[in-house]
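haha ok so turns out i had the wrong file open the whole time. this is the CORRECT one, sorry everyone. sequence first:
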Amino acid sequence: MIQKTDGGAGQEGFTAKKHDSRRRGAVLAACGILAVTALTSAQAASASTVDDGGPTVVIPGAPGEENDTSDSGDWQDDQDSGDRWNEADAAFMRMMIPHHAQAVEMTALVDERAHSKQLIRFAERMHLAQEAEIDAMGDWLAERGLEIPDGETDELMPGMLTPEQMEALRAAEGKEFDRLFLEGMIAHHEGALDMCDTAQAEGIDLDAQQMVTHIASSQAGEIARMEDLLRKY
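then structure:
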């Protein structure tokens, strides 16, 4: 979360920390998802034969948990129907939709208030990407018969701006707006990465994990870009 400070100098705290290790973690996480997917596919292709002569699939468990096994036909049916998911997968989708919705609200302010043309172009791309991700997360929930949040919430997810901070952003213009937006969105993205960390550690759905990995990778890259832009202020 952004810490409120008085004056422009106090805002330097937002850029004091670098996020290289987090960005490396996002890349490693992406590699990890690919490795698990490849492992599961290989195990399915070379499924061992159980006593009744039917093939079985070994499903890697979460960290610290034992592997699971399933009949190969049931395993494929589960993957096709989206039945292999847990509450961590669903919680990520339910929480990230309003989280993204605030980011979309923030980026919608940029065109009429920002000083930097680079920031305007960057925010436009971010706006479109996060709207598409909201749609994808809503589809994931709908396919499993789960309620889709409307994007509005009184609960602040990690990194989200407070109502007072959003009001300050709406009231700002020019370079002051640019600075507040970049500081706010960096913290917003950092909160999203925390949520991705939890989902990657606890979730099991392959579609959800691919989405989580994509969000973590893209937002880590956007943090680096926003830090570069913020250095100009």
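The first helix runs from residue 7 to 10.
again sry for the mixup
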